[in-house]
Amino acid sequence: MEPRRKNAFKSQELPRTAPNDSQGDDNNDNDDDDSGQLRKHQSATLLSRMIYWVESKEVPACIARRLLRNYNPADGENNNLFIITGLRKVFYGTQPAAEVVRVAGIRPPRYICYMISGSGCDIIQFLFYVLFYRQLNDASMCWALSFGSTIVFRHTTHRYLVFGDYVGGYWRSLGRMYAGYSIIIVLSTLFNIVITKKMDMPHVLAWIITMLWTGIVNYFILKKLWSFDGSSKKEDDDKNDIEQGSNKS
Q1: d(CA 168, CA 171)
Q2: pTM score
Q3: DSSP state of 61
């Protein structure tokens, strides 16, 4: 009698343990979701560790003694002088580096952050320009195409380094940026046509000259398009940043 009960038990349990196809698909979907969340968690953890490591580095004592005389720590900071602080607020908050990052206790001007952000995107634009020029052999057309191809990159770097969170959402902010840059693309392309085809200037030199003056004009356009809070404090900061950048140049 005992073996019969065991067999009966096995026969009853088998249908319950055998998964059907839909259950297998659900399990696979859950596994994919879990693995995706795990990757996001691991990447976030890695970024946190990198930020912590960078912000834990202090300025050498010989330099810190001189800088600490004029150093006013921000809210929540101690008197230790670190090489760079505020990165956590940039990556996990909505404020840009121009407002919260300090290098050796000094907040860099907004225009300097804009130059850093724009310079990185200019390198990407030049790579696009070289690729387009090999195919089209038209300097002005390649300038317009390469400029338009980097607007997405500029939109992202300006958010984290210069202007802060997107006003009205990502897509609306990106649309305003495309609309504003379209004017500059037309004007700069016409300028590039004049200096390359009328003045016979080498196309690489023409690219550099066109890039220099458009970078300055773009800053004033983005100030309006990005929609700051409208406070007089930020407007005064922007004016001071331009003045400091002009004095340094």
Answers
A1: 8
A2: 0.66
A3: H
Which structure tokens are listed for 162?
Answer: 């210069």
- Rounded CA-CA distance 110/219 in Å is 10
Q: Determine the structural domain holding residue 6 and report its residue range.
A: 2-55
- Tell me if 21 sits within 8 A of 29, measured CB to CB: no
User: Quick one: 172 and 150 in the same domain?
Assistant: yes
Say yes or no: 120 and 180 in one domain: yes
Q: What is the DSSP string of 1-55?
A: -HHHHHHHHHHHHHHHHS--HHHHHHHHHHHHHHHHHHHHHHHHHHHHHHHHHHH
Q: What is the pLDDT of residues 4-55, one digit of tens each?
A: 444 444 444 444 444 455 455 555 555 555 555 545 555 568 878 888 888 8
DSSP state of 160: I
Total domains, the chain:
3
CA distance 246 to 249: 5
Does 9 share its domain with 130?
no
Same domain, 114 and 201: yes
Per-residue pLDDT, 195: 95
Q: How far is the C-alpha of 215 from the C-alpha of 224, rounded, in Å?
A: 15
**φ, ψ for residue 166 (rounded to 5)?**
-70, 130
CA distance 78 to 32: 44
The Cβ of residue 122 has, within 10 Å, a number of other Cβ atoms equal to 22
Is residue 75 classed as helix, strand or coil in its secondary structure?
coil
Clarify whether residues 128 and 74 are in a common domain: no
